Amino acid sequence: MILKKRKMFRIFIPRFPNFNIYSLVARTTTSVGPLFVATSAARLDCWDVEVIDENNLHGKYYPRKEKGVLDHQALQNESPADIVGFYGSITSSIPRLFELARFYKSLDIMTIAGGKHVENLPEEALSRGIDYVVFGEGEITIRNFLMNFDNSEKRNQVKGIGYLVNKQMVMTEKRNQINALDRLPIPDYQLLRFGKMKLYPIVSTRGCNSNCEFCAVKGKSRSCTPEHLLNTIKYLVEKYKAKSFFEVSDHFASNMKQAIRFLKIFTEYQKTIKKRLRLTVQTRITDARSEEYLAAIKKAGVETLCIGFESPIDEDLKAMNKGYLSKDMMKWTRLFKDQKVRIHGMFIFAYPQKDENRSDYSIEEKIARYWDFIKKSHLDTLQLLLAIPLPGTRLRTRLENNNQLFSIDDIGWEYYDGQFPLYSPGAGIAPEVIQNGVGKLMKRFYHRAYFLRLVKNISLDFPLVLFPSVFTLFSGKVDLIKKAFYFWYRKFYQNNLLCFGGLIILRNWMRDFRKGDFLLRLAKAKKQNM
Questions:
Q1: Is residue 311 scored above 60 in pLDDT?
Q2: Which of 55, 120, 343, 460 sees the fewest Cβ atoms within 10 Å?
Q3: Hey, CA dihedral for 94, 95, 100, 101, is it positive or negative?
């Protein structure tokens, strides 16, 4: 029997171009989508598969240039890839994706990319070094593609791809969505090369039943069974001793019945292994209307809820098509807070309003409205961004039609991370003003007092909680001491540590902003937009 020569399929997650709010956490986590695709491809005979996340590079073994940047030439020399794939869902990393695609094309390596950005702008990708674009979910598509890698005729007939013929894009037959998510293999984290994992992403749901104007995730939500999601956690706990998980579905409770079922069996699993696992989920503020869901969150010990409040201003919520108004937001927030769970509040400041729903608030009045809600709701951590007119969203179409959107030639994709104004706000408001408004609110929330609170937590609160009596100190009851430590960590230390980290992130971002040339780019964009 003659053994076939093995081939290499390497997937890259391009690094962020600017320091942003995700830069630090990205060093110890990754995007789960590429791992799903890689795990599916790795089951093929004669194919070696790996994922490299440029935001999560650790150890002394990866080839590097200055400042720890991955040396792709050295990597290709050491371990040649036959085909290179790219994760193209994060718009701010698209310039880096195209840079890498052009580099590998110069080495005559086939390139393929998938993700929300490239599938919404496929011609752009195909003109900048990408040979094939994958539309929709890639697990089955990539398997069929690699199986026909050596036969161009069959390869070009694979469903769900696009490519150029005589400079014209050809799209093959659309591939159906994957509805039976339980049939997908559990992502194999061993395929992540050079990475270090602390926060493990898991996912139960694809798609979203909401229809927010600014979001590119569309389509009816599809969920795996609660048992399948728990099996993923079991696998990660048993194989990697994982402790922290981020359920990355855009709306964890889009199927409320299954979300509650999962939280219940997750609670029992923690009791069985006698360990408390840290779980973060993204939920909708309106989910607080379910008493059973609230109770399940509390019993499961969910650590953090990420909630997209978006705005405390009704005109903004109407423009976003959120489906609720501000009058109930505080009540729902308090219902969540009653479950002893941390809340990470996510907002969009100064959302571009529609003419039919325009408010008369000044920027200072908007800052006051936001701060009043943030303060009264007792949020634990805060994410405040500007609107991002992503490709494929109705928001982008509206701003383009109104001639409010700045040209990509002036302000490129690398600035599409929510920290830069990308459009003219209108109503005589300068873009710099809304960016400064975000800065003012963030500085109010993440302030220097958190450092002093940490000092107090360690020097005073820690001994008072952990050593309440000589008996506790010398009893040797390890479980009692562990419980006291966990109580101190959750009640006193954790949130102050996170907010101090937020202060460091904010200062680092401002340092890099001052060094950059964004304001010059913005001035040019404003002139072109007049």
A1: yes
A2: 460
A3: positive
